[in-house]
Design brief:
Elements: H1 2-21, H2 25-44, H3 48-66, H4 77-84, H5 89-98, E1 108-111, E2 114-117, H6 124-130, E3 132-133, E4 136-137, H7 142-157, E5 161-167, E6 175-183, E7 186-196, E8 203-208, H8 220-226, E9 248-249
Antiparallel strand pairs: 1-2, 2-5, 3-4, 5-6, 6-7, 7-8, 8-9
Helix pairs in contact: 1-2, 1-4, 2-3, 2-5
The chain binds zinc ion.
Length: 254
């Protein structure tokens, strides 16, 4: 098991170097997404040594996006080898099982290259009661509860909308709620906001993917650009252009 993780990290390192040298952005994104799941797994099992190596990889990806010197941020083979001597075998197997995210019953999803947990609707009552999910804290206070309940009510009405939890910023801050939109067969992070049509009196909820706080600091610009592929929706009543950047609009009840 130790050998497998070691080889996996060496493989990740070589693939990252190759993808970056060839300017293969899509491949770099894939590797970054994989690294993030791997890092989540290391955090979930308190594998601080493994997490430290993976965080170095994350730094390398960030440096790549920022266009600054990136080669020195990728952990060297010398760094990877000795560090893994300290990793306990049991935590590694847990880390591996955690990364098995293909099961349809699993709540872990990769959305916009990052991990988002989408609890079942029945799990939310316990989350709001205990303010914890998968051993990570969620925000306290009435605002969080009211916000989540409101989004859940929209989710119950429109199945393409789901409410998830994601890590934004440092792990110690816990998980924050986020709205996920199923669109064109993909999952997309969005902010739901009420808009009014300036041409008629339609008013309703819309989904906007352009807000920076939906994404990691390093990737939000790329993710916002990526979401430009979704059609901008106009007013469902009079077809006029709406303000902001709605890629989903609530149907007109009239
Ligand atoms: Zn209108």
């Amino acid at each position: 098991m130790k050998l497998s993780i070691y080889l996996l990290l060496i493989y990740l390192r070589q693939q990252t170097l190759t993808a970056r040298e060839q300017g293969d952005t899509a491949r770099t994104r894939d590797l970054e997404a994989f690294n993030r799941v791997f890092l989540e797994a290391a955090h979930s099992t308190n594998d601080v040594v493994l997490a430290a190596v993976l965080e170095n990889f994350e730094d390398a990806f960030r440096d790549t996006h920022l266009g600054v010197e990136w080669k020195s941020s990728i952990p060297s083979e010398e760094e990877i080898g000795p560090l893994l001597d300290n990793v306990e075998e049991v935590s590694l197997s847990e880390a591996f099982s955690y990364t098995q995210i293909n099961s349809t019953t699993d709540t872990t999803h990769i959305v916009n290259d990052g991990v988002v947990f989408i609890p079942a609707p029945t799990e939310w009552a316990a989350i709001l009661e205990n303010r914890v999910y998968l051993d990570r804290k969620t925000p306290s206070g009435d605002f969080f509860e009211e916000w989540v309940k409101h989004q859940l009510s929209l989710s119950a009405k429109y199945p393409e909308i789901q409410v998830g939890l994601y890590q934004h910023g440092l792990e110690k801050f816990g998980l924050f709620p986020i709205v996920i939109l199923k669109i064109d067969g993909e999952l997309q992070r969005v902010h739901l906001e009420r808009l009014n049509c300036e041409s008629c009196d339609w008013s309703g909820y819309t989904a906007n993917p352009m807000l920076s706080e939906l994404y990691d600091y390093a990737s939000w610009l790329a993710q916002a650009r990526r979401s430009e592929k979704f059609t901008i929706r106009s007013c469902p009543r009079c077809n006029s252009r709406l303000p902001r950047h709605p890629i989903w609009v609530e149907p007109d009840p009239l």
